[in-house]
Amino acid sequence: MKKILVLCILSFWVHASAQIHGTAMGGIATVTSEGAIDTTRNPALLATLSAVTTSFYLMGNVYYNEDTNPEFHTPAITIYSINQKNDYYYSLSLFAGYAKPSGQGTIGYSLSSKENLYLKRKDTQKLKGSLPPDFEQTETTITDELNPTLTISYGWKLSDNNYTGIQLAVTPFLSNKKTENENNLSPTYSYTNKEYGVIIEPSLGLLLTKNDSQVGLRVTPSTIKCVKKKAEADFSTTDLSYSDSWDIQQYEG
Fold it and tell me: What is the pLDDT of residue 71?
């Protein structure tokens, strides 16, 4: 039981770290305007808009009971069977944008998601084996994630055929993953890993046009991520918890 307890503690223990590297990253960007969607792409494209535009789309993904049966081998334990099942999976992606001429250029606002705005899933793993003695273990993990991105962009004309723009994207995020383990050789226990914070990403866009050619460039000087991690465990005899301090990471975009 002591060995099992130590392994459980190691599985959810959180290590604090900080990393700083890089200063800038850029790449060739799109040169075709798509209206208010340009708010989250190359902001220089906004300068080519001459009227108010709005864009909206919503996408979802739902499925149940996806089974897999992976193989696992270890010299210390005899494994009879492993069954992994996704009990349910819900995900939602969103884009809602608005752009309008303002001053010498065009300003745009949007609420979007780079991957999933919201994700919820439940995964179950059933394991049968022998140490000896024979054992049966069921591990259930429920995951909740929220990642909305708020973006404001402004694009304006530099000259007759050249445009530039600035962009600021802010993504608050929350992740909560709770795992419960039932084993006939030991008491039931559970542990929860939480992570929340914000990602700040400024960008600069450029659009150069000449005759029949166009070049778009989008540069992200630096991305800042502020994150806080927490871990909690509930055993039959004791409860444990750990809360990390705020970790500020800076990395190339």
Answer: 61
